[in-house]
Design brief:
Putative oxidoreductase; DoxX
Amino acid sequence: MFDQARLEQARSVSTLLGRVAIGAIFLVHGLTKFTGGLSGTTAFFEQIGVPLAGVAAPAVAVLEVVGGIALILGAALPVFGVLLALDMLGAIVFVHGANGFGADKGGYEFVLALAAASLMIAFSGGGALAADGLLRRRSGRSGATVA
């Protein structure tokens, strides 16, 4: 039905759209931690039992902002994809896990989807429209894009 070139174009565009959507979610969540005040985020982290909340709150905020931008650009995807997935696993452990699966009850459904999407993006190669792929091609390294 599709020839190989069209299939590769569809993969690149769909990977770009996925990276941008997931990256934007992380970017907005991270910015909210700053605009709402890191002191409030730190207090919330302390309340839910996050170890070293005073360090964890700004670290998570920075990770979500920088990681969100990295996903959007397709840069350092293995690093940021894994870190963001771990971030969401922490959200499951400390916040959402006790509420069950359903997002409508504050459960872990949404953050699990973000963790899974982050891992898929981490090891997708980012597609032809990712900074990682452009750098790979520019340096002459192979490393074909998987998705």
